[in-house]
Amino acid sequence: MDYKFQITVGMPVWGVEKYIRRSLLSVLEQDFDDMEILVVDDCGTDKSIDIVSDLANTHPKGHKIRILRQPQNMGCWAARNRVLDEAQGKYIFLIDSDDYLFDGAIPKLFKKAEETQVEATYGSIQPVDEDGKPIKDSGVDGINLPDMILRGEDKLAYFANDNTQKLRLNNFIWNIMLRSDFIKKYQFRFRQTKFWDDVLFNADMQPHITSAAFISDLTYHYVIRDNSLSNYQKRDIIQAEEVRQHISNQEYLKTQCLTLINKDYFEVRMTKMMLAMFYVIKGALKNESYLSEPIPYKEYRDAIRHPLSWKQIISFKECKLTNLMFWFLGILPPSTSVALIKIIGKLRRLI
């Protein structure tokens, strides 16, 4: 297949006036010429796109920028799909518009991708605060990768799901150099959601990857913001609908996991999905007083319900007790289920 560029860098933009210049400059100043930069204007009301336009007109490499304007504000999921639709590169590399790249990130990832001819090439990540100061205990797992090449069906998925204690591979979709033909082969799309569209995409994509390469070099600054929709911290009011969206996304991940029931890593993967739902509920209960409206305990109980029967769980070789606990929590009356979730959370110092 003929491509106009080696790499398409895709960047959704909405409400990032404070960060967009640093982010876009980190891409423009990569020592790599054969690429296009697709900036998707998601119709924000600040000056983000004005800054992008200025760089497009004044930076020596500004001609590489192509601004794609959405008909209206549609969300990050739609902006990322627009990148997939418009990309003309052999590889697609996504970056969030408040994050930024290390010098040499694109050439390093491209070189490894070309040398190995893999479907996905992953770099290592440095979590930082808004000022760029490294965060040592960010709580983000799977960000420091070994130099490794994985080939074969389920090899990557097994690597990512070999234990429940710590992620070995993060669930984000940025900082991965993906082959365009691989994405098109399986017709991967970002699902409509206010947030976590990258996590859902990754869940759909990961089981299909049969070849991947990791590099231990840091390639990506992941900016952790206090007011991000991905966490509940430091917020005066947390919209109940936000919690419900988190639960809905996690329900999708539980259901999607059932498609993997015959895989060797299924039991660990299902346990991780149940634990993730527990943490979503735990976070909401911890911040009950900040919710815009009370969420009925029945919603929490229904969310923690296990998608498998107890007979299926009894046959587990791994994580049997943990899954039985979640099955039990899911059949109790809502108030009892939530009371036990709170007790477990407090015992584990989570609530």
Account of the protein in words:
This protein has 351 residues and is of the alpha/beta class. Helix content is 41%, strand content 17%. Strands 1, 2, 3, 4, 5, 6, 7, 8 and 9 form a 9-stranded mixed sheet that branches. Helix 1 (20-28) links the parallel strand 1 (5-13) and strand 2. The radius of gyration is 21 Å and the shape is globular.
Secondary-structure content class: alpha/beta
Euclidean distance between termini CA atoms:
53 Å
Q: Give the tally of β-strands.
A: 9
Shape: globular
Core attributes:
globular, nine-stranded mixed β-sheet, 9 strands, 17% strand, 351 residues, alpha/beta
What's a quick, concise take on this entry?
The chain has 351 residues and is an alpha/beta fold. It has helices spanning 20-28, 48-58, 76-86, 105-116, 155-160, 180-186, 197-205, 240-257, 266-286, 297-304, 310-314, 320-331, 334-347, and strands at residues 5-13, 35-41, 65-69, 89-94, 100-101, 120-128, 148-151, 176-179, 211-223.
Layout of SSEs?
Blueprint: E1 5-13, H1 20-28, E2 35-41, H2 48-58, E3 65-69, H3 76-86, E4 89-94, E5 100-101, H4 105-116, E6 120-128, E7 148-151, H5 155-160, E8 176-179, H6 180-186, H7 197-205, E9 211-223, H8 240-257, H9 266-286, H10 297-304, H11 310-314, H12 320-331, H13 334-347
Parallel strand pairs: 1-2, 1-4, 2-3, 6-9
Antiparallel strand pairs: 4-8, 5-9, 6-8, 7-9
Helix pairs in contact: 1-2, 8-9, 9-12, 10-12, 10-13
